[in-house]
Amino acid sequence: MIRSRFAAALVGVAAALGAVAASCRAGRPATEADCAALLDRLVELELRERGLQDPALGARWRAEARAKFTPELGACVGRRLPAGALDCAVKVTTAEEMAHRCFR
Q1: Vertex 18 angle, CA 78 and 76, to 5°
Q2: Is residue 4 assigned to a domain?
Q3: 45 or 12, higher pLDDT
Q4: In terms of CB atoms within 10 Å, which of 1, 23, 29, 81 comes out highest?
Q5: Distance (Å, rounded) from C-alpha 47 to C-alpha 31?
Q6: pLDDT for the residue 34
Q7: Model confidence at 20, in pLDDT bands (50, 70, 90)?
Q8: Which range marks the domain in which residue 60 is found?
Q9: pLDDT class for 19, splitting at 50, 70, 90?
Q10: How many domains does the chain have?
Q11: Are residues 15 and 99 in contact, defined by beta-carbon separation less than 8 angstroms?
Q12: In a domain, 83, yes or no
């Protein structure tokens, strides 16, 4: 059951990372650290939405997401982040909200 939840969460993460990678608006270029932080935040939000609070599970999900989304992370680096995208990502409460509000 946890495995299927993780797979479902990764679909949401992929969609949001795609939004980051495709973003071309004015702003500064995303660094590798920016992209990794955004992915980690997405994983954190997905875990929270599912009511999962185990730190060991969070660490495993982050590691698996970074491995699974290596190409998307690479595509994210150098893309222009919309102004305020990183601040927005910290403030949102759901992964869907992050994708829709922070990268448009």
Answers
A1: 15
A2: no
A3: 45
A4: 81
A5: 25
A6: 93
A7: low
A8: 32-104
A9: low
A10: 1
A11: yes
A12: yes
Tokens 């970074």: give the residue: 66
What count of residues does the chain have? 104
CA atoms within 13 A on the CB side of 81: 25
Residue in 39, 48, 66 with CA at minimum distance from that of residue 5: 48
CA distance linking residue 49 with residue 53, whole number of Å = 10
83: confidence class by pLDDT, cuts 50, 70, 90: confident
Q: Please check whether residue 44 is in contact with residue 100, taking contact to mean a CB–CB distance below 8 angstroms.
A: no
Q: Which residue has the higher pLDDT, 92 or 10?
A: 92
- For residue 61, what are its two tokens? 């999900």
Residue 25 or 64, more confident:
64
What residues contact 25, with CB distance under 8 A and at least 6 apart? 80, 82, 83
Measured distance CA(95)–CA(18) in Å, rounded:
13
